[in-house]
Each structure stands twice: as structure tokens, then as C-alpha cells.
Amino acid sequence: MMLDYKEYNGSLPTLSSNPYAYTKVANIIFVDFPLGTGFSYATTVKANHSNNLQAAHHAYQFLRKWLLVEHPEYLNNPFYVGGDSYSGIAVPIVTQVISDGIVAGVKPWIDLKGYILGNPVKIIPDEDNYKIPFAHGMGLISAELYQACISYYSFTLGVTPSNALCSGDMRTFNSLLKGIVQSHILEPSCDPVSLRVHHSYGSRRSMATTLHGSVKCLGDWMKLSEIWVNTDNVREALH
Questions:
Q1: Phi and psi at residue 114, to the nearest 5°
Q2: pLDDT at position 207, please?
Q3: Cβ distance 101 to 109 under 8 Å?
């Protein structure tokens, strides 16, 4: 299913069938974790607070119960762990926990094939180090500016008093990237609060203004998804 592409009028967003859905070729389990996010919940107070490793074990525990108790018909399917963004940190850990369980002979046996990541976070402090080479490779800055930046910029320290010659070039670099969505450079740049909706249905109301114009930004689609999934009848159906 997908949200209908049309001008938002303040009513409940509608859905239509997506002919290109991944579910036509794969069975996908969308897991909200760590516990307490999305529709997931913990049965103990302690479980609501976890680090990446603990959250990975929670995900593995859920998966084993889901396969062994509720849906054993999927046990023989090839299995991949997938995610995007911050999941670049979490998904490899979950995959390793599953792999460790396989080696230890934990049941049910999962036919783990690997993991899939989209636009993943890797090592958070190092993310900025790749902006300059990436911008040059994508044609967002000139070769001259690229050479100037890498001549002075320390990929370990960033802009410091010892490489102050780079600061002017970095200001130019940042100004050229202003207005570009850094998580996806082909996405239109929009006001992060461009979609402020007025809830006129159910028990949920907002004092925000209604969206004017068509829904074109990723953030707007995410907001529409949030509106849809938080309506009482949808929440009841999903639970």
C-alpha cells in the first residue's frame, strides 16, 4: 500500500495499492526497536532502557518468537536484516547476534543470508569527513574548491586554528550546499515544518495551520504517514 499522491486537504490520508511493492517478491517484517519506539513495548521497566547490543538481543528474541510460535511457515525462507539511516549502526549488530545464535545451535534455526542497508550511518564522528569528496564527486562543487579544501582541511580535526586557511573555503563550500538535502541530494529542499496539519477527525486536534499546495517533500509524506498511523481505528487494526 502507499499514500495517495494528491493535495492534502486536512482529512484522513487515503491509501491505494502499490504495484511496485517489495512485498510482491519478499515477506517483510517491520520491527520497531529499540523497545518503546513505534508500536513496540516492553513488559518490564528495565527493558525500556537499552543500548545497541541489548536492543539487538531484544530484536532477536522477538524474531525467534515470531518464527517459532506464530509463523513457523516462514522458517525455511532466506533471511536478511535490513534498515537505513541510524540502522547502519544497529543492523550489523542484530545480524551478528542472529549469527551467534546459529553457531550456538539456538532454535529456531534462521536461514541468515546477510544484511541490507540504505543510506546508513557508519561511524558518526567521521560522517562529516566525507562531505567534501562526495560533493566533488557529485558535481556540487568545482575541482578548484575541492583541491583548496583538501589542501588545508584536516579530516581528523576539522577546521582548527592551525588550518585556518581552510575556513574561508569551507564557508564557500557550506554556502554552495545550502538548500541541498544532504541525506538525499535529489530530494526537493523544503521547510521542515511545511506540513502543519489541522486534525478535524477523531479525538486528535492541532492548532497548526493546514498545508497549502501539493505534497512534494519527503518530510510531508512522513507527516502524512504519522497522521494516518495515529488515528484510533488504524491503531486498533494494527494492534
A1: 155, -160
A2: 31
A3: no
Which three cell numbers mark 7?
A: 493535495
- Domain positions in the chain: 31-122, 126-177
Q: Distance (Å, rounded) from C-alpha 190 to C-alpha 179?
A: 8
Q: Which residues partner with 85 through β-bridges?
A: 120
**How many angstroms separate the CA atoms of 212 and 198, rounded?**
12
Q: What angle do CA 129, 218, 80 make, to 5 degrees?
A: 70
Cα–Cα distance for residue pair 65/67, rounded to 1 Å: 6
pLDDT along the chain (239 residues), means of 10: 74 85 89 87 85 93 91 94 91 97 94 93 72 91 89 58 67 88 80 49 38 61 82 83
CA 233 distance to own-chain centroid: 25
Please tell me whether residue 66 adopts helix, strand or coil conformation: helix
Angle, helices 143-152 vs 165-177, to 10°: value is 140
Contacts of 218 (CB under 8 A, 6+ apart): 181, 184, 187
Q: Report the pLDDT value the prediction gives residue 217, as an integer from 0 to 100.
A: 75
Helix (H) / strand (E) element for 103: namely helix 87-103
